[in-house]
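Protein modeling request. Please complete all fields; requests missing the sequence field cannot be processed.
Requester role: graduate student
Desired output: 3D structure, C-alpha cell encoding
Chains: 1
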Amino acid sequence: MTDCPCHLNGLKVLVTRPEGQAEALRTAIQECGGKVERLPLLAIEPDVRGTDRQKLEKAFQFNDLVFVSSNAVRHSTSLLNAGNARVIAIGAGTAALLEEHGIRVNIVPRRSTSEALLGDDRLGEMQGRKVLIIRGHGGRELLAEGLHELGAEVEYAEVYRRVTPPPPPADLLAAWRERVDIMIVTSEEMLKNLVELTGFDQNVLQSPLIVISERLQNKAETLGFRHVLLAGNPYPADLLKALCQLVDR
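Delivered output (249 residues):
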C-alpha cells in the first residue's frame, strides 16, 4: 500500500513513461486518489552490437561498471560477466533491479543524476580506473567527461535504443483540458517528444508539468511550458509529493 503524502482528489495525471515501466507510478497515483492518463513518450528496443557485447562479456576487466538506468540493466545482464568490478547504479530502481539479478550494488547516488554521482565522495580516487558505462545508444556525455576529468579511462557499452512512439490519439488532444490536469516527464528526450508529437499545442504548454531536475526544468521553460514543478527524484514517492503541491494550491 502506498504511503500517500496527500489525497489527490481525482487529480488527472498524464504519465509518460515507456510501456512496462509505468506500473508502479500508476498504482501509486491511483491509490492516493488520482486518475491516470497514459501517453508513452518513448519506446525502448534492445540493441546490443558486437563490440558492446564483448565489453559486457569481459566486464570483469573494468574497475567500475556504471548502470545509468533500469533499461541498461534489463538489456545487459544476460551477457554480463562482472567479476569483482565495483557496481554503481544511478537510481534506486536501477539498483533494485541489479540486486534482483544477483548483482551487488556498491554505490547509489542520493539523486538519480550524473551530476549527483560525480559529486559523490564514495567514488574515491578515480585516477587510472577503468570505467564501463552501460547505457542506451546516444545520450549525454556529461558523466563520461566528468569521470575523464577525475582521471578515469571511460568506455561505453550501449545496449538499447530509444524509439519515438506515434503521436497521441486525436481524441486526447481534443479533450486535453478535460482529461489532463498535470503531466510527469522524466527525461529530456521525452520532453522533446511531448512538444513535437503534440505540435506545440498551447493546451499542453499551459498544463502544469513535473520534471526531476533543474536541467529539465530550464529546458521545459525554454520550450514554453508555463508551470513547471520540480520533484527531487523519479521515484513514485517523490513524484507524489510534487503532485501534492498542485492539490494544496
